[in-house]
Design a protein that fits this description.
Layout: H1 27-44, H2 49-53, H3 63-78, H4 89-104, H5 113-116, H6 124-134, H7 144-153, H8 163-176, H9 182-195, H10 214-221, E1 240-253, E2 262-267, E3 278-279, E4 282-285, H11 291-306, E5 315-328, E6 332-345, E7 363-367, H12 368-373, H13 378-393, E8 401-402, E9 405-409, E10 426-430
Parallel strand pairs: 1-6
Antiparallel strand pairs: 1-2, 1-4, 2-3, 2-7, 5-6, 8-9, 9-10
Family: Belongs to the Nth/MutY family.
EC number: 3.2.2.31
Protein name: Adenine DNA glycosylase
Amino acid sequence: MKRCKQAQSKTKASVEVVDIEDISFSEKEISKIRASLLEWYDENRRDLPWRRISNGNNDDVGSEEGERIAYAVWVSEEVNEMWAGLGYYRRARFLLEGAKMIAEGGGEFPKTASSLQMVKGIGNYTAGAIASIAFKEAVPVVDGNVVRVITRLKAISANPKVSTTVKNIWELARQLVDPSRPGDFNQAVMELGATVCSVTAPSCTSCPISPQCQALSLSTTHESVQVTDYPMKVAKAQKRHDFSAVSVVEIIEEDKSQSASRYLLVKRPDEGLLAGLWEFPSVLLEGEADLVSRRRAIDSFLKESFDLDLENSCKVVLREEVGVYVHVFSHIRLKMYVELLILRLTGGENFLPRKQTGKTMTWKSVDHEALSTLGLTSGVRKKCFIVKKASSFCWKAQVKKDRHYLVCFMLPCDFATKMYVPRRKYSLVRLLVD
């Protein structure tokens, strides 16, 4: 199907493009691109872990060595505690599941792109990277950098997010792969996109394949065309706005000081956002909610999940709003209202009741030291920081006894009176002193 509409508005009057399915590289182009790109890569490639293991020019890769390289490439692409805070948590889980699958299958690592894609969590990109770099299979690798390089080489104006465009870019990448050095060639294209053919400021004068670049050629003959017009800019989808109430629950055991307290963590479901990760108790709200509604939601969650009744089964030492934290995911903007809730329970967390329901809540409690070293998401760590920062403004009780009075300055929690006095205020509390 021929396409006669123009690529973008600013090239409408001068540049006509054809359907991406009609685009291909000539043998002459392929030969020049391979030679120029590999020569450039040999001189300019960055020092990355898996590149230290593999000598790109060595064709005699044994089975054991190939598998070692394969694991290095895989881990570099997919590496729960060490991963915490880096995002893309599903990849870490898939890495473990994939390793288990290989171990259960006899421990032999798949050596082709097609067999690699049968492993949980390995898609086209990772399969191509492992197969070409570790086992020298002539298969392509396509990431954002490769898309940018190829769309500029061929001045492709089609939407890069559309499945037909993606399919054809993979085919163009396949045409270019050097059969003698597939891993190095794939890395060379990615390296070029990451360092030279950048998104907003490509260094075309330093590009080894600029003579073959149609986008550059068009930019020199048409005032309305720029290299950065490619690939086509696609409007990002609007992020969904979600709201949640988060309660940092601190548990103090009976007859123990607050320094021996523990924090309650719950495990998220195995599917969905941040699957299987630990976090403070939280409730997703229907929208913006006032303080009373947020606390009601948290109270209901604690009662339903742990049969924990804040009015009857425990003593609330302190309950204070400590801040608001906004975390932006790829498709969600989550606004979290964070509170600190200090509870005194008889027997501490060992006697924390848990309601027996159809869905069992997985939870644990950790002390302050463990909380600071535990593998937690960046969002949970941020909430810890908010609580710590808020607590630093809550001074320790400054007590001055004057006959029958106790003066409490900016108390964070109870001190003899068992009453919370708001920050930046002081209260004169009368005691019955013998």
